[in-house]
Specification:
The protein is α/β, with parallel strands linked by helices. It contains seven helices and four strands. Strands 2-1-3-4 form a four-stranded parallel sheet, sandwiched between helices.
Length: 148
């Protein structure tokens, strides 16, 4: 008889207020990481969700914070969901790209087997078409460079 083994998977959602659930009545159950975890458990996947969202976080702040998060939890899946605040502040897309890539490099060093997910966001159009396009192209390049 074959025994089906169930392994608990740990997913870290590393992002900003969108991840943290800022403004929700109960971020612990209503933020999207909690909803994803609930849906996975309902589908029979044993999963532990870590919501490492921090309101106001930029890619630079995330780079400073990622070692602390990784020192507490080793992920099987790491969802990188930063960039919205960089765009709101008109930060350099090139600097954002370097920060996001550096975050994923740290994740790969700490958890070599982790699957990486890069969630992209769109910049608001108020900085112009050139900025919006430069911003938009960062996320696919970061994902491709990290093998996500």
């Amino acid at each position: 008889m074959l025994l089906k083994q169930h392994f608990m998977r740990t997913i870290i959602f590393f992002g900003d207020s969108l991840t943290a659930g800022y403004g929700l009545a109960n971020a612990g159950t209503e933020a999207y990481p909690a909803l994803v975890g609930e849906a996975m458990r309902e589908a029979g996947v044993s999963v532990r969700v870590v919501n490492a969202g921090s309101s106001g976080e930029t890619s630079a702040g995330g780079l400073r914070r990622v070692d602390w998060v990784l020192s507490r939890t080793t992920p099987d899946v790491f969802v990188l969901a930063l960039g919205a605040n960089d765009g709101l502040r008109g930060q350099s897309p090139d600097a954002m790209e370097q920060n996001l890539a550096a975050i994923l490099t740290k994740v790969k060093a700490a958890a070599p087997g982790a699957r990486l997910v890069v969630a992209g966001v769109e910049a608001l159009p108020n900085y112009g078409a050139d900025y919006t396009e430069a911003f938009r192209t960062v996320f696919p390049r970061v994902a491709e460079g990290a093998g996500a």
